[in-house]
């Protein structure tokens, strides 16, 4: 083999140079991709101030990760982050990780520049939190409307009830429902927080 290499050294050298040149050309023309991440903490959303349920039963992080990957969040992120491209394509550039034993989501977005990657990760995280807050506000409004209807019904029953134990029970129920309505409408809504 040594004799063959000495006789064909020019061919070997040309082959090595061609290989190096094509490797450098491929590296220079290869598409670049950048990742950026954002971490979102998830706050439990409940209508009951004094819920006995453990926090980890009020939030299912696997479900929340799927919501983050939804087309609705992708459409919101595209608009909010001024990201170009179809929301389905944007969603394909997103990954969501759930750190073990936490109420957090790690959002990772891939793009062809660091700035777009950061904008994408932040847009998805913010859009998700906005969606969660809006959903919680709508749920609270529905719950408050149910309580108001219940108050109207109880008030009508109390007016029509004869004095005595029945009216007293209805008045006590009115007090309880009024307190529930007050609690439900005065609770601050925290969908979560963008940590990083």
Q: H/E element string?
A: HHEHHHHEEHHE
Number of helices: 8
Distance between the termini: 60 Å
Residue share in helix: 55-70%
**Structural class of the secondary elements?**
alpha+beta
**Averaging pLDDT over every residue, what do you get?**
85
Radius of gyration: 30 Å
Low-confidence stretches: none
- The dominant shape is rod-shaped
Largest sheet: 4 strands, antiparallel
Note the beta-strand portion: 5-15%
Strand order across the biggest sheet?
2-3-1-4
Briefly characterize the structure.
This protein is α+β, with helices and mostly antiparallel strands. The protein is built from eight helices and four strands.
Explain this structure.
- Helix content is 63%, strand content 12%.
- It is an alpha+beta fold and 196 residues long.
- A 4-stranded antiparallel beta sheet has the order 2-3-1-4.
- Strand 2 (94-97) and strand 3 (104-111) form a beta hairpin.
- Helix 5 (71-80) crosses helix 7 (114-160).
- The longest helix is centred in the C-terminal third of the chain and has 47 residues, at 114-160.
- The protein starts with a helix and ends with a strand.
- 16% of the residues are buried.
Write the layout of secondary structure elements.
Blueprint: H1 2-7, H2 9-29, E1 34-42, H3 55-58, H4 61-68, H5 71-80, H6 87-92, E2 94-97, E3 104-111, H7 114-160, H8 165-186, E4 192-194
Antiparallel strand pairs: 1-3, 1-4, 2-3
Helix pairs in contact: 5-7, 7-8
């Amino acid at each position: 083999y040594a004799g063959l290499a000495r006789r064909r050294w020019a061919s070997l050298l040309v082959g090595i140079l061609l290989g190096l040149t094509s490797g450098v050309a491929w590296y220079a023309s290869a598409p670049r991709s950048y990742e950026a991440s954002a971490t979102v903490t998830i706050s439990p959303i409940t209508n009951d101030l004094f819920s006995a349920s453990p926090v980890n039963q009020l939030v299912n992080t696997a479900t929340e990760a799927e919501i983050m990957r939804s087309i609705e969040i992708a459409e919101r992120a595209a608009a909010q982050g001024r990201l170009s491209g179809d929301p389905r394509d944007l969603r394909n550039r997103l990954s969501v990780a759930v750190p073990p034993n936490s109420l957090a989501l790690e959002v990772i977005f891939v793009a062809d520049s660091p700035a777009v990657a950061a904008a994408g990760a932040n847009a998805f995280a913010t859009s998700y939190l906005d969606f969660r807050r809006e959903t919680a506000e709508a749920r609270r409004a529905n719950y408050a409307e149910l309580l108001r209807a219940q108050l109207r019904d109880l008030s009508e029953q109390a007016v029509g009830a004869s004095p005595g134990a029945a009216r007293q029970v209805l008045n006590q129920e009115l007090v309880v429902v009024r307190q529930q309505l007050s609690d439900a409408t005065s609770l601050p809504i925290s969908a979560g927080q963008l940590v990083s």
